[in-house]
Amino acid sequence: MRRALITGITGQDGQYLAELLHSKNYEVFGLVKGQNNPRIDMIRAEYPYVELVSADLQDLSSLVGALEQVQPDEVYNLGAISFVALSFKQAELTANVTGLGVLRLLEAIRMVGGPDHKIRFYQASSSEMFGKVRESPQTEETPFYPRSPYGCAKVFGHDITVNHRDSYGLFACSGILFNHESPRRGIEFVTRKITNAVARIKLGLQETVALGNLEPRRDWGFAGDYVDAMWRMLQQDEPGDYVVATGRTHSVRDFLNAAFGHVGLEDWERFVTQDPRFFRPAEVDLLVGDATKAREELGWKPQVDFETLVSMMVDHDLQLEARKAGIDLP
Ligand code: NAP
Ligand code: G4F
């Protein structure tokens, strides 16, 4: 059995990747941080096949210890401070975890993986690195222009991954993933914030939702599709960097339209207010990716389109919120 270590196991992608690797007969190990992390119980209950290992991306010796214990064939580095808005308020923490954390993990792999560098490494890079985009659609060759401390940290993580591949011959891949969502998406991100509010408004549990800028456009895909691309990258003969995207872009306004429309509330403007607290010091206005390389070399293409994704998330939140409120759905 192959052994995989996932950092960020408690996050959205960590959960989908654990399921995928388990279905492929891997032994799955998940790195968890903290002394009484409330999300550990959720992982134990819902993913009982995942073996948990304690470490932190801010602590090199803990990463060396985790790798020595697990002896993985593959390491997927999904752990990060991943919320762009938070990165403006906690920039140093973000640089430390999201940026330097990648270097620490790569160095730990060099130490534990030995001269043969048997451990394959995946880095969760981000379309946020393109920031103020230099061209559209964005490809693996598009220059980076990050617009947030998070984006800057991800650029460092990407560059140090490429550097360790070039310098030490590590099998290290960087997946430049565009936004991907699901019912497991954190409630702080705009898609889930909207679908949860739509469900609660439809059920009469909430009157309005306060948002920030409605104009930015994102290339939104389904997280379950995107973890498959991560795995495919580590099965290639040679390591490389890949854009993973749908090639379609929608505004936050479009997302609102689709989400409220799904429950028959076409006049969504009356349920949405705008609050300066949710605007960012600098915005990424437009992201749209060209995943030709992933399609041609990995045989990857997205299975879930934008409309299906929105419906899936709204339906999930309707069930969730109705159950919590003791409401019987028709
Ligand atoms: P997420 O739900 O926010 O999960 C982030 C994970 O990082 C959590 O498991 C969190 O653990 C862990 N983490 C935070 N600080 C850590 C530390 N100091 N040491 C170890 N682990 C730590 O993120 P996601 O959406 O699944 O995304 C996965 C990765 O892909 C992230 O690196 C993200 O930046 C990147 N990415 C995401 C997207 C997207 O659209 N989802 C797009 C491009 C790239 P706790 O639960 O214990 O806090
Ligand atoms: O959902 P978001 O917070 O995602 P964002 O900033 O695009 O970042 C996500 O995708 C990146 C890939 O490009 C990942 F690397 C990153 O880890 C994360 O997963 O915001 C999307 C857009 C932004 O333009 C934001 O300004 O929605 C806008 N927005 C408007 N009102 C809002 C809100 N975003 C949030 N979170 N909350 C609002 O109330």
What's this entry about, in short?
This protein has 330 residues and is α/β, with parallel strands linked by helices. Helix content is 43%, strand content 15%.
Fold and architecture overview:
The protein folds into two domains: 3-181 and 221-244, Rossmann fold (3-Layer(aba) Sandwich); 190-218 and 249-286 and 304-325, Alpha-Beta Complex (UDP-galactose 4-epimerase, domain 1), CATH 3.90.25.10. It is an alpha/beta fold and 330 residues long. The chain has eleven helices and 13 strands. The chain has helices at 12-23, 39-46, 60-70, 84-89, 91-113, 149-168, 190-202, 223-233, 252-262, 292-298, 306-325, and strands at residues 3-7, 27-32, 51-54, 74-77, 120-126, 171-177, 180-181, 209-211, 217-218, 221-222, 241-244, 250-251, 272-274. 47% of the residues are buried. It has a seven-stranded parallel β-sheet with strand order 3-2-1-4-5-6-11, sandwiched between helices. Strands 7-10 form a two-stranded parallel ribbon. Helix 3 crosses helix 5, helix 5 runs parallel beside helix 6 and helix 7 (190-202) packs across helix 11 (306-325).
